[in-house]
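Field notebook, page 123. I keep forgetting to write these up properly, so this time I am using the form the group agreed on. The chain and the ligand, zinc ion, are recorded exactly as supplied. Prediction of the bound pose follows.
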Amino acid sequence: MSKINDLRHTPTLALRQRKARLVRTFSLRPDLLHASLLERFLKCGKKQCACHDQGAKHGPFFYLNRSFAKGQFQSLLLKSPDQIRQARQGVAAYAGLLAVLDEVCQINYELLRRGEPPGEPED
Ligand SMILES: [Zn+2]
């Protein structure tokens, strides 16, 4: 989750400038993925295989998992290095987007705490 930035001693003008820059540079990346990329090593179904008793499991296998309400769940086995790379980029893009949104929201919280309008100052 996001960390709390201590903005209480940052001048209001600096907060507004920081936020203006974040809002200006904000862009919705087309490859966004809200999901977890998991790497797994697995045992197979063959009883004689070394994966069962020598710890030489198969893998890594990469899964892209999405969770929904009520324990609903999607899991996609990624089959190519390109898919894995694209998934990794999409997940990172989502994290970056969340970080920007969160910073804007923290600045707005601080502006409200000061009695300042979080929207643009009236002009
Ligand atoms: Zn095996």
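OBSERVATIONS:
- The mean pLDDT is 92.
- Helices lie at 12-25, 50-53, 81-113.
FOLLOW-UP: compare against the apo run.
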